[in-house]
TrEMBL record, chains A, B:
Cross-referenced PANTHER family: OS05G0393800 PROTEIN (PTHR13018:SF96), PROBABLE MEMBRANE PROTEIN DUF221-RELATED (PTHR13018)
Family under the similarity heading: Belongs to the CSC1 (TC 1.A.17) family.
Record GO terms (molecular function): calcium-activated cation channel activity
InterPro entries linked: Csc1-like (IPR045122), CSC1/OSCA1-like_7TM (IPR003864), CSC1/OSCA1-like_cyt (IPR027815), CSC1/OSCA1-like_N (IPR032880)
Residues annotated as domain CSC1/OSCA1-like 7TM region: 373-417, 462-689
Protein name: CSC1-like protein At4g02900
Length: 805, 805
């Protein structure tokens, strides 16, 4: 096992590289040219139109002196203002990091004050000469002899910690619930407050979907029903619009290139992506290309208009789903929470998501199909988690012909040099060994190692060879790992959830399972997830926690490195925004002509909840598991939480855009996953102590997971419905208030176009073909589309209005 | 293992004794004196006032000739009429037996047509000389050699059976749902359709509970709220009333005795139950006793009146719960299904149970206390199930000083005699061995054995000795087993459910777990439940199904005996109604003076759902498990289902009273438990085949439980909400219909007194003290109580009316 010195060196390297990233960030962010990379939110909000300093490079040295000032800035904004600025989702998200601090700082203090002395003086390792051990092991529970009464101290601390976690979780759930309710209460009038999504409208031989919906709700909610909007099957249309957008981008690119170099004759190939095909190198080619494209666009435009016409007039394009709006929030709350029909698989009502949150493709999946999809996806998830390594191993064995065994001599070569190399190589071993590593940390680490490698290896050809041999398998693993969140999101979409927010919540749940099995268990029990599964099935239920419990103390150093490499580094990389930085500058160079183009080239990004949150949960789990076993891990986790809190607070203030606002609907999931972490840690402790010959403690230890399950149920009953239902009292209060403050409000007008498919709404935006036709067609087309647009809305509303008295 | 001959003999004995019971029943039921024992329902319904034949003993020989005619009678009543007559709960309950037939008859046909020939010709047991085997084993899967391709036949049959079960369960769920909805739709106006039970009304410093409820619902359901009834803490009052009722019974008993034997001086003792204390033997004692009692009753009456006064006027006696009634079913449906307040632990609304279904004691348990109670009861249930044998063993070891080992020589003594004895003794071993046996079957069996014993053992003192030694441990076990449903019901009451129907459903769930562990697992894996738990924890998850799978074929004969002894016999005993028979005749002799008294002495009993249903589930489980392993068990189970269907159909027509009507709300539980049985059988099959060296079949076998879980979720989503929610469409339909057919209906008057505590309602019934005071006080008291009674109702309604416009 590694010594304290090893860890110190490793920490120093990681801290230095994180610091390097931070300095790079501090410098880059002050350059006006990067203003749109690092402060896009202010542009989006319309608070900033151009960089504050107009020069290309900022030369004001005073600003460089205070290069960590952004951290203070990030902390300065008070929470209510932050909610106003960034939305409740983001604020509650960063509060998870804060919760990590609140939980682990007191636990760390307790552990260092009580457990570390108890462990240190255990003297088991010194007395037994069978083991090699380091100072770190002396701090851990491994130093307590089997059957010692010192374990009672650990159990007492376990109880204290557990109750502290319960208390913090309870308080946090309460606070979040209050924040959510206040946010909802304080929020302005929004269409989703009045609207219910109705799915699985049963077919009726005599009536269209629209009529059927109308009649049903007129009968069953006579005093509250207002209007409804049917859902059109606009998938084909959406594809056409996407295609047109892509063509437009290419057109602009060619035009720019052509304008900048009218004399030079750049070469290109006619094949896919300009990569192969016949080589043509004339300006004519571009002109023709542009002409062709423009012609194509006009064709497409006509095609699209025809398609749009068809969709709106064709009753077959109507999906058996509708957005039904009510006269009051009370009416909507009632309809969303009750069952409408005898058959609970038809007339399904639920709160309408925000218009921007609707995932339109999934609105019309029949009940049986939905169930089969979920079954298939559950099976697929199982295979994804447990057989994830199979395709990777195949690709790796094909890609690396020399075989992985040659990697190890290369490492040995490194090891001989110095302490620095020692640390590097151990990090490299971590990479190879770790099964799952995440891009940012991995990038950072590889850059480090590569630079050190270049500096210290005398023969450059060695570098290349060893790079290929040493890094290729890692890169292949990385590519697969990067695909995981994407694959998981696709799976969630297949499962048929109807809003982006629920899709992201489901994806996060899946990804958490993946990380739990492949990172946590995968690193504790060596071998692939499938091997673990095999082991798990062929060991007794008490044996499995034992296996983990015994392995846990030995893996402390590994996880310390992991926290630094994955946790710290990925946060540092997050703030640097390397990928958006590069992409923005590429776009800025090749595509941007006007200020509006620059606006579009800007990519603020979103808070990637389904990827970040499960990763963060791993740190909670590690904290819970190691707080009793090897408290030395805790400071590293605390640093992670503090650093991440700072960075993400900065990011949500200055960078990220809001995709949707779910009012912290994800909190029950977050809470549950933290509870799962706690539960696992308690099982592990039970397993560990059952190997230490202290049988008397078992009943006390069994009580802990039972209590945890109970606590979970208690909190669920106490708070969860605030996240899934909308209390009538609230609804009534808001209705009454609104009636008093705005008696002339016409809800019908307000809601009429709220839930029209974005394709029909955004008609004007995409329909004017650029280039030569700027004078003629655009006018007509705009006219036509706006006619279409209004036709859509008038159609939707007339359908809702006409048969009503 | 037992041979076919053994089982034949055992079956013959059991069939004969069941037949004896049936003949006894056939004779007894025709005696006019027993009419109130065997046909109480007709009296309750007012369709019969006195026995058809007025003679004491029925001598019409023609009726005896058709002694099995009741079976045909029981089948004759068509289902709609039966629902009308006995309620939906009872009808759906007997349909579970019918479902058993529908599931297992085709499976048995398939198994005997396919599996039995395949097993019979497997020739494994004949070729291997290591095992002793019988013909029964040759019919079972044990006869197939390891690794044989014949197992594919079993897997194919498993799939066929599984899909058949799915189909039948799905159809049955659908039918039950339809029946429930039709029943609810067809049912008359009932107060619970308009009423919602509101619990956890938060305390308010300025308002009483009643005002608070009123204001809250006036504000939040302004168009629908009608009135409410608060719940009084009448527990003390209820105790007083109970005490008085018991005193009255004793009084009548003494009066009767005194009147019948005015000359004779019977002796009694003054102590508890007349069992000890000073012996007094004079008529004076009774007179004094009566006087004392009467005085006491008057005192009590005054005390009760005072208590009643106090309860109604004391605001502290108001519980934070209320029954809130709405103007329409729609309003009630909305309120019951929605969340009222931000805080989901206050203002909890749910459908009000029927007035007769309300369990008044549990209406006011705060949220935290409720959670703690459930936690404690979950832990208690765990200990009840797994440590159930501990107190029994202690009592047994104390009660049987000679030690259980002496039982076995006695058995050996029996074994030597004849084949009959052989069968008897094997039955006795079953009893001792079985861990859990149920009273009726046990009674029957013991009577058999005892009679045989008397006939065949030469020395009577042997009989007594061996009876004590052989039966005492069994009796002790029996007493504990009889207490189990009672204990479980008390546990459910502590858990805080608010209606008898939910209490019974919860008790059934607990009892099912108990039977599953202690009867099913307990008999397959020898040893106490705790030992099984230990084994389970220390075996791998794949090992446990293997252990069971291997043991299953060996236990076939045991379970065949079990089905006959427990299943057939208990059903036969059910129809004979031995205990109510005895009790009725005792009461009839000692307590009955008037026809009204006789009415009260009649005990129709109820369908004991929480005891019968879990036991029946065991037969489903056995059927699923053995249909592939040893199909020989199936005919016995089919006979059980058919016989039970007949008997219970007869009982619900002629005997049982309805305690409440939950409209088959228990069906989702029944369905789930059948699914659990299927799931267990699939795991067992997986375990069994994994020991038979046919690895290729594993994926096919794993797919089965996954499919079963999916099927459960599918059905749950498809049907369950029909049992927990009330669709608005239905409510609206009934409201509209009622408004059309009965426009003058005053719902307020109809609902005013619906949910008054039965103590306040039944005031007159218990308040007139009998005896000497018949002229004076009763009038006053009746007046006083009726005043009180009307005061209660006027109070309740005035509280509801006064602040309304």
């Amino acid at each position: 096992m590694a010594t304290l010195q090893d860890i110190g060196v490793s920490a120093a390297i990681n801290i230095l590289s994180a610091l390097a990233f931070l300095i790079a960030f501090a410098i880059l962010r002050l350059q006006p040219v990067n203003d749109r990379v690092y402060f896009p939110k202010w542009y989006l909000k319309g608070l900033r139109a151009s960089p504050i300093h107009s020069k290309f490079v900022n030369l004001d040295y005073r600003m460089y002196l205070r290069f960590l000032k952004w951290m203070l800035d990030a902390l300065r904004m008070p929470e209510p203002e932050l909610i106003e600025h960034a939305g409740l989702d983001s604020v509650v998200y960063i509060r998870i990091y804060l919760l990590g601090l609140k939980i682990f700082v007191p636990i760390a203090v307790l552990a260092f004050a009580v457990l570390v002395p108890v462990n240190w003086t255990g003297q088991w390792l010194e007395n037994s000469h069978d083991y090699t051990f380091s100072d770190i092991d002396k701090l851990s529970i491994s130093n307590i002899p089997s059957g010692s009464s010192r374990y009672w101290v650990h159990i007492a601390v376990a109880y204290l910690c557990t109750f502290w976690v319960y208390y913090m979780l309870y308080e946090e759930y309460k606070t979040t619930t209050t924040m959510r309710l206040e946010f909802i209460a304080a929020s302005d009038r929004r269409p989703d407050q009045f609207t219910v999504l109705v799915r699985n409208v049963p077919p009726d031989p005599d009536e269209s979907v629209s009529e059927h919906v109308e009649h049903f709700f007129c009968v069953n909610h006579p005093d509250h029903y207002l209007l409804h909007q049917v859902v059109y099957n606009a998938n084909k249309l959406a594809n056409l619009v996407d295609k047109k957008k892509s063509l437009q981008n290419w057109l602009i690119y060619y035009q720019n290139k052509y304008e900048r170099n009218p004399s030079k004759k750049p070469t290109t190939k006619t094949g896919f992506g300009g990569l192969w095909g016949a080589r043509v190198d004339a300006i004519d080619y571009y002109s023709k290309e542009i002409e062709k494209l423009t012609e194509k666009m006009i064709d497409d435009f006509i095609q699209e208009a025809a398609e749009r016409e068809r969709v709106l007039s064709d009753p077959e394009a109507l999906l058996p789903a509708a957005f039904v709006s009510f006269k009051s929030r009370w009416g909507a709350a009632v309809c969303a929470q009750t069952q409408q029909s005898n058959n609970p698989t038809i007339w399904l009502t639920e709160w309408a998501p925000e218009p921007s949150d609707v995932y339109w493709n999934n609105l019309a999946i029949p009940y049986v199909e939905l169930n089969i999809r979920r079954l298939l996806m559950a099976v697929a998830l199982f295979f994804l988690i447990f057989f994830f390594m199979v395709p990777i191993s195949i690709v790796q064995s094909v890609a690396n012909i020399d075989g992985i065994e040659k990697v190890f001599p290369f490492l040995k070569n490194l090891v001989e040099r110095s302490v620095l190399f020692d640390a590097c190589s151990s990090s490299l071993v971590v990479i190879q060994d770790m099964n799952v590593m995440f891009l940012n940390g991995w990038l950072l680490l590889n850059i480090n190692i590569f630079i050190l490698h270049l500096l210290l290896v005398p023969y450059p050809q060695d570098v290349v060879r060893s790079f290929i041999q040493g890094y290729l398998p890692g890169i292949i693993l990385k590519v697969f790992l990067l695909l995981i969140p994407v694959v998981i999101m696709i799976m969630s979409k297949i499962e048929g959830f109807t809003s982006f927010s629920s899709l992201e919540r489901r994806s996060a749940a899946k990804y958490y399972l993946f990380i739990l099995v492949n990172v946590f268990l995968g690193n504790i029990i060596a071998g692939t997830a499938f091997e673990q599964l095999h082991k798990f099935l062929h060991q007794s239920p008490t044996e499995f926690p034992k296996t983990i419990g015994v392995a846990i103390p030995m893996k402390a150093t590994f996880f310390i490195t992991y926290v630094m490499v994955d946790g710290w580094a990925s946060v540092a990389a997050e703030v640097l925004r390397l990928v958006p930085f590069i992409i923005f500058h590429i776009k800025n160079t090749f595509l941007v002509k006007t200020e509006q183009d620059r606006e579009q080239a800007m990519d603020p990004g979103f808070l990637d909840f389904p990827t970040y949150e499960p990763r963060m949960q791993l740190y909670f789990l590690l904290g819970f598991v190691y707080c009793l076993v090897a408290p030395i891990l805790l400071p590293f986790i605390i640093v992670f939480f503090a650093f991440a809190y700072l960075v993400f607070r900065h990011q949500i203030i200055n960078v990220y855009d809001r995709k949707y606002e779910s009012s912290a609907a994800f909190w029950p999931d977050v809470h549950r996953r933290i509870i799962i972490g706690l539960f696992i840690s308690q099982l592990v402790l039970l397993g560990l102590l059952s190997t230490r010959n202290v049988k008397k403690t078992t009943p006390l230890l069994i009580a802990l997971p039972v209590l945890t399950i109970w606590f979970h149920r208690f909190c669920k009953g106490r708070f969860e419905s605030a996240f899934t239902r909308f209390p009538l009292q609230e609804a009534m209060m808001k209705d009454t208030l609104e009636r008093a403050t705005d008696p002339t409000l016409n809800v019908r007008t307000y809601l009429r176009d709220a839930y029209v498919h974005p394709i029909f709404k955004g008609g004007n935006e995409y329909c004017s073909p650029p280039g030569d036709e700027e004078e003629g067609i655009p006018l007509v087309s705009t006219k036509r589309t706006s006619q279409k647009g209004s036709k859509v809305t008038s159609l939707a509303s007339s359908e809702a209005d006409s048969p009503r008295k």
